[in-house]
Amino acid sequence: MDSGRVEAFSDGVFAIAITLLVLDLRVSGEGSLFHQLLAAWPNYFAYVVSFLTIGIMWMNHHTILGHVKRVDRPLLVLNLLLLMGIVAIPFPTTLVAEHLRDADGKVATVTYGLVMIVISAGFAALWVYVVTHASSLGAVVPQDALRQSVPGFTLGGAVYAAGTLIAASWSPVAGLIIFGALAIYYLFEHLPSPAEEPAAGKPPAG
Amino acid sequence: MDSGRVEAFSDGVFAIAITLLVLDLRVSGEGSLFHQLLAAWPNYFAYVVSFLTIGIMWMNHHTILGHVKRVDRPLLVLNLLLLMGIVAIPFPTTLVAEHLRDADGKVATVTYGLVMIVISAGFAALWVYVVTHASSLGAVVPQDALRQSVPGFTLGGAVYAAGTLIAASWSPVAGLIIFGALAIYYLFEHLPSPAEEPAAGKPPAG
Amino acid sequence: MDSGRVEAFSDGVFAIAITLLVLDLRVSGEGSLFHQLLAAWPNYFAYVVSFLTIGIMWMNHHTILGHVKRVDRPLLVLNLLLLMGIVAIPFPTTLVAEHLRDADGKVATVTYGLVMIVISAGFAALWVYVVTHASSLGAVVPQDALRQSVPGFTLGGAVYAAGTLIAASWSPVAGLIIFGALAIYYLFEHLPSPAEEPAAGKPPAG
Amino acid sequence: MDSGRVEAFSDGVFAIAITLLVLDLRVSGEGSLFHQLLAAWPNYFAYVVSFLTIGIMWMNHHTILGHVKRVDRPLLVLNLLLLMGIVAIPFPTTLVAEHLRDADGKVATVTYGLVMIVISAGFAALWVYVVTHASSLGAVVPQDALRQSVPGFTLGGAVYAAGTLIAASWSPVAGLIIFGALAIYYLFEHLPSPAEEPAAGKPPAG
Fold this sequence. Notes:
The structure is a homotetramer.
Chain A: H1 3-20, H2 33-39, H3 41-65, H4 73-87, H5 90-99, H6 105-132, H7 145-169, H8 172-188, H9 197-200
């Protein structure tokens, strides 16, 4: 299958998942609307963190699939499993939005972190598959692409693990701040993209 | 109408239907969030089975439409009827997620199976139409494409029927496991795709 | 603006509106799930009628925009107003699904019919604009396209009006059957499409 | 990254956000359906204003991105932040639809206006970035594009501010009418589009 078709389908899924986050923007409870709006800050917080996170994941997804020209069945399967995690993001987002301020805030934020760790592993699997099957996928990747990308993936996973631990042992709000900070960090730091490859991909001895 | 446009519209419908499944990821009931999350396993189970199933159906849809260059009115109608079934999938998914553990679990799982059987028949109808009208659709299909595909479609229908019967007579959970196993099986086994045709499609005497 | 971009956006809106209809597939009330499923027949009925209707409208939209090469501001505005009607379809669909069997069935079905009449007028306006501004839109339409299309648009509007009157004065179910029959009729009868124009569009004296 | 991909993703987000507005079309309360439908006029009003507003924003987004050939990381980030505002629009729309007639109408409409002001600032930031980085984005913009666009952006921001103040100090309905009037005004008045540039962009002394 042509990779463009998989990207178009994945783009649609990303676009819908990111837009469904608006369903978490809602107020509830007693009192005037003004007080309800103020009290709903966990909803806004969770919305912003998840929106930025899905946005970053969309960019990373394009960076990875931008390397390949065609996709095979294992890549389709890995991509489908990855999307299964991304589509689920509104679920822990809702949990965090509803419970951040009550006794279940830790459980909600840990669930959020665990979903993110699973998704990070999915991205790593997709990337490893692309790099190790570059020739059959028509992909042009730098010789040491895998080694180069280890720090990035390790950092992401480690920060999600740290945030999850902090949420579990100390403060759910601090955990969520860490997840948000990671998204903001990745807005500016990222995998080398295919467009930048001509420089990064040339033979070291060239 | 150009087949690309029908595929783009269908892709959008598939992407939205698969993403709406997240609405079934929710907790309810009494007790701590932790216990609610554990008790919601039928929701996760139904989510995974339906997500993989719609994912497979998307791939099969592409495989079928990948054979044709243009579409005529009957193909559009068949495609619309097929999409009407696929868009409905979140409905029996919700039924299963809500009732798998109560006395209505059998009715919910049988409803799920019946929807799948109807959709399987829709796929078979679309495929038969493409093969039997190959020339007017600009399709290149192997001479014996219809005969070759009989086992695959028969298997799918038979497994859905078996799962439905098992859910009705014995265990809804077992029925749902069968539906999930079928999806996983089809992740790796599938119709011959257009890209693989040059080999499969050459004249037997060549 | 290039017409392809408007079509892509419109396609997305059609695809989402048609998929959101699944939210009307739900059961409620007392009793076993089996009886709830049987009692929910107005939901299935409304789902099928609206699904086929939006599907037909999507095809008609493509037929109309398939004539033009570029779009101007008035066409964008007309298209946006038309989409505003189409996106609203799930609303009267929900009303019909919930009230078809109770004393408010007439009001619900009349509302449904009125929305359809407004949308039909929107399609007629879009088509008239395309035909009367063919040269500036880069459109190739038969000389007598406008006259040829009068019967089709008149029929659609008249049948929606008749169904609405029948729903108001006699039976909401009969009105909904008429709306569904119109959709099925248009599945097979339609405006001349751009692909068929070479024949339809040649000079009468050619 | 190619700008076409960003536009496709953004189009998807716009299409979904505009379609989710239908979730605000609903009736509630006591009495016959007919009276509920009449009483729901704030829902229709808010639906129309937000639908036209998102529609206009979609057109403006295309006008801005239509100038560029490729996108860089800062543009992606600005675009993501802008989309985060647009995806949120259904939230204040719901607030207005539910509270326009009660004591919380002012708070709801002011919230609506503030979201619009933030989004307007986002559009201005995107446009300023495109104009000031035209060469690296492959954009062709008129020499004095920035100066030319000041009146348009100033008008939009000023009208949103005025509508918000009027809603806060006097009448939420009047504020919402102003927001709707602005959308209708921009249906016919807009930024110079890339297609019109050859005329608008030629040197004044040419």
